[in-house]
Structure formats: C-alpha cells, structure tokens
Amino acid sequence: MKQPLICHLTTAVLLTFTSLPVSAKETEDTQVERFDTNNNLRIEGKEVAPLRKAYDENKTGSLQQFDRDRDGKLSDLEIAAIQLHKPAPEPKNDPKAKKKLSNMLGKGKKK
Question: Bridge-partner residues for 82, per DSSP?
C-alpha cells in the first residue's frame, strides 16, 4: 500500500518541477536565444532538434539548466518550459522627449 503512494508522490513532484517555466536569463552565459530562429520567444518546431543536439554535445554547458529532472535529456516539457526574454529597447536620443522631461521637472527655459 505504501509503495504505490510513494511512487505517485514521486511522480507528482517530478512533473511539478519539470513543468515549471525556466527563465533563459538565469545564467549569464546561456545561448538559448540563438535557437529561436523565428524570434517568437519560444523554442518550437524545427528549433527543437538543434537545441537538443547542442545539449547532447555539451551536457555540462549552459543548456544544462533546462534539464530539470537531470536525466541527461531535454524532454518536450522541459523545452516548452523555456522562457526567452526580449531585450529591452535601446533608449532613443530624442531632443523633444528631453525637452518635455526637462519642462516636467521644472528645468526648462521659461519664456
């Protein structure tokens, strides 16, 4: 009776950890973004095979963080849980915006 209960609990815990999203920004050196060739912030379709191949070639590299169950393979669930982040846009050098901000802060020229 206890054996099946422990087995079910272990399975539930493993499924919980493998389905949690993993941020691709958890480590500085991850290069997972290069596999997102269509830039939709997900690894899917034709992008999966190259990601798995890169992981298989270096299982101790930066892609290791996505193998949540530590079985030495990237499952479909583990790949689906990868969350890519769009880099913040570069601030634009807009003189009108600077003038508006300056006026809002009370530092603008008074006429």
Answer: 22
